[in-house]
């Protein structure tokens, strides 16, 4: 197991009061596995990814829980220790690549800076010129790996000269160049057209198989998860409410919320009209005592309004729902 998030709780302190963004998140990720993290907007996907990297904004705090990465609890690490892990062992690719490439430097410099600072093989070479030569060669190799056409030419360009898909590939190549164990992709392919999107996903799959990289793949798109992930975690109200094998969860969803998400999809193949989930996501300032899905759930029982259900395992899938706790 590479990553195990245990009972993670995060709060934000705002003018509206305390936002209970994560309320006990539990999931794990094996080596060489792609885990899909899905859930409506505001369910806590990005906060989970930021917490893992310890990049939460200053008004947020990890209240309790563990983030075990290769056996080390990241919650306990200070900023200096985290800096050794971030980028090198845990790399991130975001939805908006423009923000993460420096507009005033050529792509080449952005690679060289990263590799000279972090690549152990390049760092130990004595002459600066030699180090830069090695870094340039590695950058070309990485750009080729992400199927970038004419990598030598790309290195001489500025970010604004590249298309969105090309920028995303540059970020992927930068992320991969330090051989990370874990890649967190938060809506990383959402802004791309479908052809580029599938190319990027192919590259991720290649890395997973070739280098045993683990990927936390955050998306709204259950179809993408079905095609690319081994396991899925469904988030709601700052908790993972269903977690298990992707085929099992998507073909036989247990949690009424997961069922709702699937029913909201357009199914051209089956001539089924999508049905949206009634109501809205819970207010995380006034978090209900019971299941946060209670007010929207067609199957709600009295106890659902009173306590949050303990996890139950059904055919290898973990679910937090009183309907199953009863059986
Ligand atoms: N900087 C912030 N200040 C206050 N609250 C925040 C902040 N960032 C996130 N939150 C709260 O944390 C909750 C979870 O947000 P998060 O960004 O993780 O959602 P998400 O699942 O990534 O949604 P999306 O699908 O829209 O990206 C939200 O209810 C949001 O209000
Ligand atoms: Mg998000």
In short:
By secondary structure, this protein is an alpha/beta fold. Helices cover 35% and strands 23% of the residues.
Quick tags:
binds adenosine-5'-triphosphate, Rossmann fold, 327 residues, alpha/beta, four-stranded antiparallel β-sheet, 12 strands, 13 helices, 35% helix, binds magnesium ion, eight-stranded mixed β-sheet, 23% strand, globular
Would you write up a description of this structure?
- There is one protein chain.
- This protein has two domains: about 5-90 and about 180-325, P-loop containing nucleotide triphosphate hydrolases (Rossmann fold, 3-Layer(aba) Sandwich), CATH 3.40.50; about 95-180, P-loop containing nucleotide triphosphate hydrolases (Rossmann fold), CATH 3.40.50.
- Strand 4 (about 60-70) and strand 5 form a beta hairpin.
- Helix 4 packs across helix 6 and helix 6 (about 130-145) crosses helix 8.
- By secondary structure, it is α/β, with parallel strands linked by helices.
- The strands form two sheets. An eight-stranded mixed beta sheet has the order 6-7-8-3-9-10-12-11, sandwiched between helices. The protein has a four-stranded antiparallel beta sheet with strand order 2-1-4-5, covered by helices on one side.
- The chain has helices at about 45-50, 80-85, 95-100, 105-120, 120-125, 130-145, 150-155, 165-175, 195-210, 220-230, 245-250, 255-265, 320-325; strands at about 5-15, 15-30, 35-40, 60-70, 70-75, 90-95, 180-185, 215-220, 230-235, 240-245, 310-315, 315-320.
- The relative contact order is 0.14.
- Adenosine-5'-triphosphate binds near residues 43 and 59.
């Amino acid at each position: 197991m590479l990553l195990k998030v245990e009972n993670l709780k995060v709060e934000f302190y705002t003018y509206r009061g305390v936002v209970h963004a994560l309320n006990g998140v539990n999931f794990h990720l094996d080596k060489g596995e792609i885990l899909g993290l899905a859930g409506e907007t505001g369910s806590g996907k990005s906060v989970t990814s930021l917490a893992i990297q310890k990049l939460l904004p200053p008004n947020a705090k990890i209240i309790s829980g563990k983030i075990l990465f290769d056996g080390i609890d990241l919650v306990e690490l200070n900023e200096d220790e985290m800096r050794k892990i971030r980028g090198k062992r845990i790399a991130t690719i975001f939805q908006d690549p423009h923000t993460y490439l420096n507009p005033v430097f050529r792509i080449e410099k952005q690679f060289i800076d990263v590799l000279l600072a972090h690549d152990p093989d390049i760092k130990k070479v004595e002459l600066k010129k030699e180090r830069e030569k090695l870094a340039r060669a590695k950058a070309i190799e990485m750009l080729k790996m992400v199927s970038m056409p004419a990598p030598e030419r790309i290195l001489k360009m500025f970010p604004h000269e590249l298309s969105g898909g090309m920028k995303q590939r540059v970020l992927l190549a930068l992320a991969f160049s330090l051989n990370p164990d874990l890649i967190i992709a938060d809506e990383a392919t959402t802004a791309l057209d479908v052809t580029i999107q599938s190319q990027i996903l192919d590259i991720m799959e290649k890395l997973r198989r070739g280098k045993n990289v683990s990927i936390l793949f955050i998306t709204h798109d259950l179809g993408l998860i079905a095609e690319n992930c081994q396991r899925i975690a469904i988030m709601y109200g700052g908790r993972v409410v269903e977690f298990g094998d992707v085929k099992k969860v998507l073909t036989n969803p247990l949690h009424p919320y997961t069922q709702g998400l699937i029913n909201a999809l357009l199914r051209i193949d089956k001539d089924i009209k999508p049905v949206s989930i009634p109501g809205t996501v819970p207010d995380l300032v006034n978090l209900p005592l019971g299941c946060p899905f209670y007010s929207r759930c067609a199957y709600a029982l009295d106890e659902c309004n009173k306590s949050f259900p303990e996890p139950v395992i059904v055919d290898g899938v973990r679910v937090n729902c009183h309907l199953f706790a009863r059986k």
